[in-house]
């Protein structure tokens, strides 16, 4: 059976960098004085993911351009720390490693990595291709279906949680289609999306279990306690804006198709030379 793996490159890259950026034990500079810690840890993590497939894989990255979400909500992702220059200097190296490993990677102007992954996942699922998404972003939980599994990275790849439909229900008591409405109510601090005051995860789950979705919640405000009703009513416009911001786009006009995600390259001289140049001692193999 065909298997597609989709990797949130930004998520993996940032985790790789911060895993050793302030470590006293792991050297971050090579003999040329170049910082290669993100590259080194990214490769370590990515090789473990590669062991899971011999078929198709794609790594998606955010575009530096503003997205449609920024145009509609100017404070989208506002307040995030500035990306360290040491990491910026390694991004092209990470992408070069992927290219030499025969791994498709992609960024597309005005779209986020989430949207690229969502589009590919939906295309694959529609063809009954088993699809696994690796990220630390819970937004991907909205994509889970009979063919799509989301693996949330908690701590490198040493601690991960694999979510399918039963696991999602076990942990959240929600269906995949309710994840967006859940986050619309509680907010998402990582993207600077503010939720409804006094509506935490437990209350959001209770409301969605009772009414099913945002529309039905707002049709039944009179059934709720006065303070909760007032908070929901006062934040109604914001809640539906949140829904737009949190919903991933599954219709990105990609410049490639699923066939181009096939893993084709094995260990080669250029990859070995790249690893040696940057003094990465381990010999990495992508496909036999």
The CATH class of the largest domain turns out to be Alpha Beta
Strand order of the largest sheet: 3-2-1-4-5-6
Radius of gyration, CA atoms, in whole angstroms: 21 Å
Which range does the strand content fall in?
5-15%
Q: Could you name the CATH topology of the largest domain?
A: Rossmann fold
Spans of at least 5 consecutive residues with low confidence:
283-288
Task: Write up this protein.
- The protein has 288 residues and is α/β, with parallel strands linked by helices.
- The chain has 2 domains: 3-173 and 248-277, 5'-nuclease (Rossmann fold, 3-Layer(aba) Sandwich); 176-246, 5' to 3' exonuclease, C-terminal subdomain (DNA polymerase, domain 1), CATH 1.10.150.
- The chain is 43% helix and 13% strand.
- It contains 12 helices and 8 strands.
- It has helices at 9-20, 37-50, 68-72, 85-100, 113-126, 165-172, 179-186, 201-211, 214-219, 226-234, 236-246, 269-277, and strands at 3-8, 56-60, 104-106, 130-135, 148-155, 159-163, 187-188, 193-194.
- The protein has a 6-stranded mixed sheet with strand order 3-2-1-4-5-6.
- β7 and β8 (193-194) form a beta hairpin.
- The longest helix is centred in the first third of the chain and has 16 residues, at 85-100.
- The two termini are 18 Å apart.
- Residues 283-288 have low confidence and may be disordered.
